[in-house]
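Something for you to look into today, if you have time. Could you write out one complete protein record for me, on any chain you like? The space below this message is yours for that.
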Amino acid sequence: MSDKTFQFELLTPETVLMRDRVREVVVPGREGYFGVMAGHDHFATTLTKGWLTAKWADKTRRYHVDGGVVQVTPDKVVVCAEHAELTEIEPL
């Protein structure tokens, strides 16, 4: 896994659930789950129901998400979810 980080934001219509620099994000997209690390190509897709995982060097957070959109750039990922809820925090 790369040591590089990128900006990650998880938003819902009600609140900002997370805004932090992370090492990797795994997202349930329209075509299936996909992982993003720093330097990823630009793209956007819809978000489906499933588990979103944000990873740092020393912990992992999992959110249950349902619907929305995802925008990826080389230095930032923004997830605008219709609904999202933190389900667990795990030390690595």
The chain has a mean pLDDT of 93. The CA atoms of residues 45 and 75 lie 17 Å apart.
